[in-house]
Structures are given as structure tokens and as C-alpha cells.
Amino acid sequence: MAPNPYLLAADNPQALLSLLREDPSLASGQDEHGYSLVHAAASYNHLELLRALIREFKVPIDLRDEDGETALFVVESVGAARVLVDELGLDAQLRNEDGQTALEKIEAEAEFPAVAEYLHGIDAGSSSSAANGTTSGGTELLPVPEGLRVTVGTMDEAEAEGQQPDPELRRRIEELAAREDFQTPEGQAELRRLVEDAIRGEEFSEERSVRPRQD
User: What Pfam families does the entry give (predicted)?
Assistant: First the structure.
């Protein structure tokens, strides 16, 4: 009789790894309730097995059971939660069929307070990132070049007409932002020159002529 992989996930993770290497198709299997080996490894705190399932056997980290719950909903230790979120990239904000995040369910059940505290820290970090000018996807807004001041205001629709950005200026800024040296002093200086030229009202073109010097 073939061994039950879910029992091995609980009691003998090394034997399960050997079994999976013989038959990798077992790695992403789920039982009749959607419970997976990823859920089992996280629940029983078998961290090396958990890493191997995702990295070696390419099991989706966000695999859900019949209740729409990822492995983060069943963790019982901070270590397993950290591996799922910090190392393997699981989104802690994913919700189950009841609309709960893992943190909300853990708090509702009043279990594993250390895990709840860790997940609270993730929420606080996300709020801090948003307050410091990062987007929900984690992309930082471009810094204002040193020496320039930005004033935020509004304009009506009539003023906005005719104020479309020069496409050539946009193209140059996008190319500069994609360069590896963008954050260096030289890259920032070049960005500053582009912005200053735009403020002075210069037109950008592929063959821009040099303006005559005004004495």
C-alpha cells in the first residue's frame, strides 16, 4: 500500500520529500477538502518541506482549500508565517470565503497570539510604506531631484488643456529612470537638467537645435 503523503507531511517530512522526488505529481495534490501538502507543512511547522514544495516542486504558494484559505490560515508558529510571507512571497492580505484575512481569522479564534502579532507587524509595515510614498505594488515614487522644489496645486480643466507633457521629454525621463545609474549623483543630475529644461519651456525633439547664447 502506498504511503499517505498527508500523514508523512505530519510525521516524517524527509520520507515525504523522498516520495515526492520519485513522483513529483503528488506535490500539488489536494484532498477532498482542498487541503494540500503546503497547508500541512505550514501547519506542522516543517519549514524545509514547505520551502521545497514551493521552490523545488513549484507548488503555487497561494493554493487554497475549500474555504478559500491559504496555508497562512493554518500556521501555528511565527517561523512558518515568516517563511510563507517573507521568504516565499505569500500575500498576507488574501481573504477566505468569509471575507477574512489570516490575521482576522486567527484573532477571531483567539489562538496563536504570537502569529497574530507578527501579522499585525506586516499590516503596520504596509501602512508605513504607503505613508512614505510607495504604491500598493511596492514601487517607490521617483524622488524629487536635489535643488528643486515641488509645489502641489490644482488647475481647472481649461488650464489643463494644452498642458500635455512633451512626449519626447516623457520618453527621455522614462529611459533615464530605467538606467542602472539613475539613483547615482550623475543620474540625478541628468534628471534635474531635464526637469529644469522643461520648466524653462524648452521643446524636446530628436534633433533639437542648440539655442543661441543670449549675452
Answer: Ank_5
